[in-house]
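## retry 2 of 3
previous attempt timed out at serialization; input unchanged, resubmitting
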Amino acid sequence: MVIVIQRVLQASVTVEGRSVGEIGQGLLLLVGIASGDTIAKAENLANRIRKLRVFEDTEGKMGLDIVDAKGAILAVSQFTLLGDFAKGNRPSFHHAAKPEEALPVFDALVDALRRETGTIVATGEFGADMKVSLLNDGPVTFVLEG
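## retry succeeded, writing output
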């Protein structure tokens, strides 16, 4: 599993012109699920995300986590994070989980984030052609793999 984590002032996702998820200050998670990823792995990563201190404290340092910062989360599935260019210029997605395998893992991640943080966790629409808009804060971007 690969998760790109972006600290944002706001983020939203639309499908066919309709808003399906939006947040103010918080974290935008772009989530790539690999073949073989498990619900247990998703729950572990949710716990790690909950503990990430990536928001500024009163001293201007990254000392606050998502709960301390009173932020929200927008999680968006993105299988293209598993794209492999090893054999040329066109990506291969053979490492990405098939939708029927990936959806339960993505849902488990979202459920665990809600449990762990007690905050708003919005999502995109799994498998849809989504338009993601964000205002990155910093910019602050991390890649979490597990």
